[in-house]
Amino acid sequence: MSAESPPGVHLRRTDENSAEIDALVGLIGARAGIDEVLGDLDRRARKRWVPGLAVSHGFTWDAEDRGTRDWWPQGITTSADASDTEDIGGRKVLAVSWYAKHGQGSRISFIDPHALRYRHVLLVRPVLREGRVDLEALPVHAGGIVWAGPYLHVAGTAKGLFTCRVDDLLRIPDPLFDPDPERIGWHGDRLSTHGYRYVLPVRFAYQPSTDQGVAKLRYSFVSLDRSGTQPRVIAGEYGRAAQTRRLASFALDPDTFHLSAGEDGLARPERLADGEPGMQGAALVGDTWYATQSHGPWGPGSLWVGRPGAMRERRWALPMGPEDITYWPSLDTFWSVSEHPHRRWVYAVRRDRLHRP
Fold first, then answer.
1. pLDDT higher than 60, residue 5
2. What is the phi/psi pair of residue 314, to 5°?
3. pLDDT in tens, 311-337
4. Please, are residues 204 and 192 in contact by the beta-carbon 8 Å criterion?
5. Count of domains in the chain?
6. CATH code of the domain covering residue 71
7. Nearest to 349 by CA among 304, 306, 307, 309
8. Is the dihedral of CA 266, 271, 276, 282 positive or negative?
9. Domain assignment of residue 324, given as a range
């Protein structure tokens, strides 16, 4: 099934949390921004062989992140999405999202793949309480992320999309920092952030809705399509059995990097099509779709290639537990990430390997 300007599915952008974020900056002192984070990468990744017939190369996390069952990697995006030059301050950068299984919300790892160093940043929601700005964790699955211009869009499944401005990255200064990993928010005169030195506040959200009789779209994963004249955010659904498993394409305003909306303020997908069962991520290059599919913690993953309704499965193309996928245009390469403890890799796939007989 495919349709032009499909009816019934839409997103509405909320007001920005400008006052709350500015109040937080006032308490902390200044924004850090991405340059400060990239200059303060405190963890070391390791080059590793990655299983998968289509995998070109990759790396893994440090020992703690390889094995933790508290945090699970999900989404991936790159500086090729964020910038026309495909770099940030001269560096190629990867970003990976994780979700916590025990109430700590979600986080982003900013990675320098050349130096093999990275740092985790906690996603937070600023809220005003009794005249003072406080923090909450962002409890979403974060199954996909898109770094488009100044914004980082985070997939929130049934909650739509949550959007941060990367320039809002904040470093908690020493006099305020509470290292307790179990707490978040103010505790006396210290600010707790589950032990994370850097936080990225949510600035606004895209809240989903549908017309009567139309199944609500689940924003399980997202990616960026730059292959046309106008950038587009690709969103899709993880679905098994009778669940829907749709793929949607939303136009992105190239000047503001907001989703393009009609006069009623609603952003609607330009295209809506059925994908494959169990999709964990999808990317669109030209008119060809590429969708990852997991076969559990021990079976190698698949990559589906083609147009909706006629996609071909590339079995054993990916490691076990593949998740989101993103495309690096100048390198003609995809990047993806796998989720299972001790089988966690960030890895590249050359697109030409997927079109060989």
1. no
2. -100, 95
3. 999 999 999 999 999 999 999 999 999
4. no
5. 1
6. 2.115.10
7. 304
8. negative
9. 2-355
